[in-house]
């Protein structure tokens, strides 16, 4: 059986958020740690979709330079001949 890594970490929450987490922990008869761990498991997919600070602060990408038109010799127009149907052919 794998052992659980119990590392201590200080987390700081706004007072109203901490009170809400404490109320939920009491309601579920769970620890604050358990509530925060479950919240992370539920929310991590959405959190990973958020842009990082570097994404927000980086300048927008520059547009690619417009391609320079190459000098090309004009091509001769190819005549298109449409076959006309006569009323004699349809009989």
């Amino acid at each position: 059986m794998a052992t659980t890594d119990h590392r201590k970490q200080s987390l700081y929450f706004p007072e109203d958020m901490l009170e809400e987490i404490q109320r939920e922990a009491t309601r579920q008869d769970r620890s604050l740690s358990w509530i925060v761990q479950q919240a992370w498991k539920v929310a991590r997919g959405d959190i990973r979709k958020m842009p990082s600070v570097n994404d927000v602060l980086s300048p927008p990408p520059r547009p690619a330079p417009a391609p320079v038109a190459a000098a090309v010799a004009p091509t001769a127009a190819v005549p298109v001949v449409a076959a006309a149907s006569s009323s004699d052919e349809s009989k």
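The mean pLDDT is 80. The CA atoms of residues 43 and 53 lie 19 Å apart.
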